[in-house]
Amino acid sequence: MAAYEFTVTVRTQYLPEQSDPSRSNYVFTYTITIKNTGSVGAQLISRHWVITDANNHVDEVRGLGVVGHQPLLQPGEQFEYTSGTQLATAQGSMTGEYFCVAEDGHQFETKIPEFVLSLPRTLH
């Protein structure tokens, strides 16, 4: 087991009631669970997102914490939050990383695995 390790899992959802496809506006939420799978307590300090739509338009977002929090997670603890994004296309993807600092001062990055944002499949 690595001393400094967060594991990230993601669930996504399309929000048709907030979207307007006729105006190329598609709204998605994503729920992220961050778990400290290492052996040292650590705090999530900041985030960096790369959001890409189906036209290969890329938005980069950087900021402190997540949804106003900088969670300090002891080994085995987890933090879950939900946020959202808008795309101009019906499909896109997100990836990025969290920048973290362990209680002993060691700095490390946690990769956010790429995930797809897309409309649910409909069968006719």
From TrEMBL:
Coiled-coil segments: none
ApaG domain ranges (all copies): 1-124
Which Pfam family, any one of them, does this sequence belong to? DUF525
Q: Which GO terms describe its biological process?
A: error-free translesion synthesis
Report the PANTHER family cross-referenced here: F-BOX ONLY PROTEIN 3, POLYMERASE DELTA-INTERACTING PROTEIN 2
Q: What is this protein called?
A: Protein ApaG
Organism lineage reads as: Bacteria, Pseudomonadati, Pseudomonadota, Betaproteobacteria, Burkholderiales
